[in-house]
Hints:
This is Fibronectin type III domain containing 7a. It comes from Haplochromis burtoni (Burton's mouthbrooder). By secondary structure, this protein is mainly beta. It folds into nine domains: 8-89, Immunoglobulins (Immunoglobulin-like, Sandwich); 96-176, Immunoglobulin-like (Sandwich), CATH 2.60.40.10; 184-262, Immunoglobulins (Immunoglobulin-like, Sandwich); 269-346, Immunoglobulins (Immunoglobulin-like, Sandwich), CATH 2.60.40; 355-432, Immunoglobulin-like (Sandwich), CATH 2.60.40.10; 440-517, Immunoglobulins (Immunoglobulin-like, Sandwich), CATH 2.60.40; 524-604, Immunoglobulin-like, CATH 2.60.40.10; 612-689, Sandwich (Immunoglobulin-like); and more. The chain is 0% helix and 53% strand. It contains no helices and 68 strands. Strands 10, 11, 13, 14 and 15 form a five-stranded antiparallel β-sheet that branches. Strands 25, 26, 28, 29 and 30 form a five-stranded antiparallel β-sheet that branches. Strands 33, 34, 36, 37 and 38 form a five-stranded antiparallel β-sheet that branches.
Amino acid sequence: MAQNDIRLSVFTVTSKSMTVQWSGHTGASSYKITATPKNSPERPVFAQFGGNTVMGSVNSLSPNTVYTMQLEAMDNNLRVLSSAKTEETTAPDVPSIGQAYSKNSDSITVEFKEVSGATSYILRAESKTGDFFKESTVSSSPGTMVELQPYTDYVLSVMSVNLGGRSQPSYPTEARTVVMAPNLNTSSPTNGTILVTWDPVKDAVLYTLVIIREGSNTRLKLNTTDTTVKFDNLEPGTTYCIKGTAWDSEGRTGDDVTVCQITRPQSPDVTHVQVTPGRALGIAVFWSQVRGANLYLVWTSNGQNCSTENSYCYINPADCGQNHSVYVIAYNDAGPSSPSEPANYITYPCPPENIWVEEPRAGNCSVMWDGVPLVEYYMAFIKRDDGMETFCNTSLTTCPFSCMCGYTYLTTVFPYNQAGSSPYGHVRNYTTIPCCPLDVMIKLVSTETLEVMWTPVKGAELYETTAAQTKDVIHCNDTAPVCALSDLSCNTAYSVTVTPCSDLRGCNRTCKPQTHETAPCTPEILNMTQTNSSTYRILFTTPNTPNTNYTITATGRYDRQSCQSTNSSCVLTQLPCGSVYEVTAVATTAVGKSLPGFSKTLETGPCCPMSVNVTQVTQAMTNVTWSPSTGARSFITSLTSPRGYAKCHTLDTHCLMGCITCGTNYSVNLEAISSTGQKSECKYRGFSSSACCPTGVKLYRRTNNTLRVYWRSLGPQIYNHTVELYGTGANYTCMAAAGSMYCDIQEETCGDVYTVVAAPVEKYGSKVTFCQPRTYSVPCPGSNAGMVISRARRSVN
Length: 797
């Protein structure tokens, strides 16, 4: 037989029964259900059903017990065709209600006896009319059913619940909800009263109100059938709590409600009103705080206000020069208090709108202003732009002060009254005329230019520089403290004025001029005249005023010479020969120097040679040499005597001259000539030509083997003579005294040919070297005269 092909499930469970449901089985003529308690000695419970039944209940079960439920499908022979099992727990036992009551208008509390095995309970409430049904789960007794209607009858029952399900409802009981609490509305019309109002409560016949002050144990209870109650003689700014309850006709109290109401605050007392300092004018109001106030509102008589939680308040802005009053109102949740007693106040006086400075005399200024109302006195402050400050205290509308040129003065006036001074004042600037420069320095920077310098002065933004001699033409119009007056006339005094100017005050035309002279005019050289070899007189123009000093300067390549004069001429001395000078003239005064005049070239004569040497070459010819001469290009040399002269012109430093007479004293002159024709006459120590060579020289043999040389002298007989014989075998020399015209020589060998030279011996023993030699052949004894064989010229060397 097949097993377990039928499905079994528990449909419902109560504390005494279980209803099961199964699927039908083909061929079954009946079904048997056996409920066997698990873990319990109780006997099983059976129930049998027909073959067409698929649901049945097993009753007489024990509450809160686990049962094994077995279903068997049987045929007509009671054979089991199929079976199925399941386990289920029965519900707990049915609880019983002890009492039900209502303390609130929307709930009823049920007290019941709890049963074993219940995990929770279900409260059921039904209206008698059947239009209300509600169940609510609670965990234990008592349980409260909520969301009910006030003053309404309800039927109440309780069911226990476990895992198996719920029990049957308990025996019902009836209960009625109480009336609603009144909806109290409170207000505080004054700071000592509270008014309570409410709408009538349905089914209520009496009302009870209890009032208590916060923080107090004293209560006041009042029963009334009215819907309005007013509590008097209360404390201001104090919170009172009021509890209200309604009664029904059965004498039951309904819900109670408690509301708290604070009384209005007491009027505050204004203690102080002060005008606040600062740029923005305002007033500060102070008052004594009152109990229960959480906000204060301050009003002024001109409609301004402020609010705060503190005991002071600022009203901004406040107009200056006003006389007003102020009062304070305290607020809390109940409303405002009565206004405080008004407190009067005045604000700072307004600053004068029109302030100006007058300067009737230079240095004496007065600040002046228009008067304003509500003023006791004025404080005027004058601050100079360098930080120096002064002030005055006056009840008038003017204040004198000392003012200096070139400064800007900032003036302001503060009026005062019992509230203090105005927090600000209009500032007016006054700028005095620029100062005149005191240290004007005029310097000559060129002959016709004056440089004017000064220290910048206060208040000047621009300087005008003029000179009266230029018809007050503005030479400079500049911000710099310097000006150059150019293209002026030389040797002229100019009256120069520096005028400071500013945009605000214009120009100071009271400044004194300064006088300065330009450089002297330039002198020009007219003529240069040589007075001796090294001295020249310079003639020049004098275009300047008297007492002008003129300096003539001659500048050469290696030196400079100068002379000074106050008239129109000057002498230059010690100008060396052979030099070229640039000669200029400069005028000098106490102011300075003029420009140099146009220069002129001065050429001194060439220098005489330092030495001249005259050398006699022959008896009639000399060679003149001289040292180089500075500045000379050619030379003319002359030898002059009473017996004649010789001259030569050459570019060299030597010259060969003839026509010389022997034994004659010559003067030596040399003329040095420059390339431009400048000449210098040079004289030197005289030159004496050599003694004349003897003439008519003859050689004679004499007895005793002596030879005599005889001659004739052309000049004076003042010179010794020397005679030299040069033979082929021997040479001989002899000396003849002055005045003697012969000389004897002892011959050693006869028949020789002799060269004879007879020459005078000059003062210092020098022999005239250019006398001509003569040759003689002297025969041996037997002949009286020599015979000249030849006559040859002897070299001067």
